[in-house]
């Protein structure tokens, strides 16, 4: 940041000391915008995020942490300095939750993860195996009362299982995975449930649980110790929203990514890659003019349940939402064992068709990536990231994704290289999601693809249907046009 200020100082001096020449900034073009995006610039942003995560010993940028607040400040300050955008911080409150769980049974300690919003407490009591999936009150035997319920993952959400166990009088609940491996944490959801009160909860891997269950089935009684250390409190955080001062303000081309990580790690791929990719595009875009306003949303508390984007959408007046022509989402675009996935907006692969225009966005990404020789595949358009709230209000959406906990198929390994049978990101939601585990090639290619879409739609949104309530396009903003579109002096020494 210091370097930036010095540059500005020199620039101003140079302009006043010598006759300036002027350059009229041109209308943005995809190839020009892409040319100015570099791996080294992306890596500089990633280094910042890693530094922010490391200001606390936990090495995290979870919403509400110091590492996250520094991330938000960095984005805000960087965009304000350009003068090109109207930048606002959008504060909102949410219920923060973090915790640690230890489980031991019959003298053995087990790996366990915390479920967000589970209350703290220590329980030492017999384990009672629950039949089915614990999604129905009738699944819980009367013997569970006063004891610890042992329940399989699956069929219904974690929160329902925990509430039903609470209603059955259990003092604690352990949810084990329904496939090999650990559950990897999860959320119960912040809201109280009518079915029952939450009780201390922790997770177990399927392997560990099955060995315990086989002993229980032999009639052996097992006393377990479940210790949940939890912090649950109301906090506030900020979205950062930046809109170009120029361009048609009734035809907004919107892109977004989330600024927070999970508690477990620094989140440099998830979603440092998407948020810093669009930040760098936002910086390079300032060299150009646009026909349509370009907006960037840097969402907070995505990992608590898309809370930032949800807050934005639910609090924006309908006439403001009608001005958004489309939304592009970038969440995890540098996975180490990457795939080149595009959200299936036309529903051709997963049968979940997005609002009309989502197909246009999908095809734009397909065509661009094909043109640079990259094979792509569709990915489920299931609302798992910040485009979910946009779909809810019928805004055409799309985006790119390089994969999370899913496993790369042998066919995909032929297309893209990497290892078949291994997760796209083995560090997903884990401490290893750090600066050493990014795929820079995938990151720059996806950032350029994002820039192509932004530049293309910033010039024209033809092909995207006009939305209900959207004004006639081309209506001039009542705001005076600033900077963008004016002559920019060029230093000549
Ligand atoms: Zn994410």
UniProtKB/TrEMBL annotation:
Q: Name one Pfam family in it.
A: PA
Q: Where is the PA domain?
A: 123-212
Looking up Gene3D superfamilies in the UniProt record yields: 3.50.30.30, Zn peptidases
**GO-annotated molecular function:** aminopeptidase activity; metal ion binding; metalloexopeptidase activity
Q: Which cofactor does it need?
A: Zn(2+)
Q: Which UniProt keywords apply?
A: Aminopeptidase, Glycoprotein, Hydrolase, Metal-binding, Metalloprotease, Protease, Secreted, Signal, Zinc
According to its record, what are the GO cellular component terms? Answer: extracellular region
Q: Which GO terms describe its biological process?
A: proteolysis
Q: Give its E.C. classification number.
A: 3.4.-.-
Which N-terminal residues, if any, form the signal peptide?
1-17
Q: Where in the cell is it found?
A: Secreted
At the top level of its lineage, which domain of life is listed?
A: Eukaryota
Q: Give the matching InterPro entries.
A: M28_fam (IPR045175), M28_SGAP-like (IPR041756), PA_dom_sf (IPR046450), PA_domain (IPR003137), Peptidase_M28 (IPR007484)
**Stretches assigned to the Peptidase M28 domain:** 239-452
Similarity-based family = Belongs to the peptidase M28 family. M28A subfamily.
- What does the record note on quaternary structure? Monomer.
Protein's name according to its UniProt entry: Peptide hydrolase
Taxonomy, top ranks, is:
Eukaryota, Fungi, Dikarya, Ascomycota, Pezizomycotina
């Amino acid at each position: 940041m210091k370097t930036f200020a010095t540059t500005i100082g020199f620039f101003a001096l140079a302009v006043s000391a010598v006759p300036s020449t002027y350059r009229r900034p041109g209308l943005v073009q995809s190839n020009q915008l892409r040319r100015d995006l570099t791996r080294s610039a992306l890596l500089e942003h990633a280094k910042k995020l890693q530094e922010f995560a490391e200001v606390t010993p936990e090495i995290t940028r979870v919403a509400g942490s110091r590492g996250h607040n520094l991330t938000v400040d960095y984005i805000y300050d960087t965009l304000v300095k350009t003068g090109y955008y109207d930048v606002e911080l959008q504060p909102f409150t949410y219920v923060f939750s973090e915790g640690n769980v230890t489980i031991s049974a019959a003298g053995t300690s087990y790996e366990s993860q915390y479920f967000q919003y589970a209350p703290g407490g220590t329980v030492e009591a017999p384990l009672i195996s629950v039949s089915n999936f614990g999604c129905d009150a009738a699944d819980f035997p009367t013997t569970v009362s006063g004891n610890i319920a042992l329940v399989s993952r699956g069929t219904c959400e974690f929160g329902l299982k925990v509430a039903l166990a609470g209603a059955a009088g259990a003092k604690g609940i352990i949810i084990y995975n329904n496939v090999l491996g650990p559950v990897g944490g999860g959320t119960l959801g912040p809201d109280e449930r009518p079915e029952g009160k939450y009780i201390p909860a922790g997770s177990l891997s399927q392997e560990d649980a099955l060995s315990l269950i086989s002993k229980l089935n032999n009639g052996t009684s097992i006393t377990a110790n479940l210790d949940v250390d939890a912090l649950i409190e109301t906090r506030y955080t900020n979205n950062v929203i930046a809109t170009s001062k120029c361009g048609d303000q009734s035809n907004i081309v919107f892109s977004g990514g989330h600024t927070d990580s999970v508690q477990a790690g620094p989140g440099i791929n998830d979603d440092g890659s998407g948020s810093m990719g669009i930040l760098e595009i936002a910086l390079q875009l300032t060299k150009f003019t646009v026909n349509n306003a370009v907006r960037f949303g840097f969402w907070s508390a995505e990992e608590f349940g898309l809370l930032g984007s949800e807050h934005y959408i639910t609090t924006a007046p309908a006439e403001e939402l009608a001005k958004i022509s489309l939304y592009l989402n970038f969440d995890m675009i540098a996975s180490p064992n990457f795939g080149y996935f595009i959200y299936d907006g036309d529903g051709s692969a997963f049968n979940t068709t997005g609002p009309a225009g989502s197909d246009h966005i999908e095809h734009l990404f397909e065509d661009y990536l094909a043109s640079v020789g990259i094979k792509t595949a569709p990915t489920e358009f299931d609302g798992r990231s910040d485009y979910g709230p946009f779909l809810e209000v019928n805004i055409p959406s799309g985006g790119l994704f390089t994969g999370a906990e899913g496993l790369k198929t042998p066919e995909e390994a032929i297309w893209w290289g990497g290892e078949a049978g291994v997760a796209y990101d083995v560090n997903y939601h884990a401490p290893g999601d750090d600066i050493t585990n990014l795929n820079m090639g995938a990151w720059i290619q996806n950032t350029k693809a994002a820039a192509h879409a932004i530049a293309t739609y910033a010039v024209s949104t033809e092909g995207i249907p006009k939305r209900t309530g959207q004004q006639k396009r081309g209506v001039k903003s009542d705001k005076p046009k600033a900077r963008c579109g004016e002559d920019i002096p060029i230093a000549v020494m």
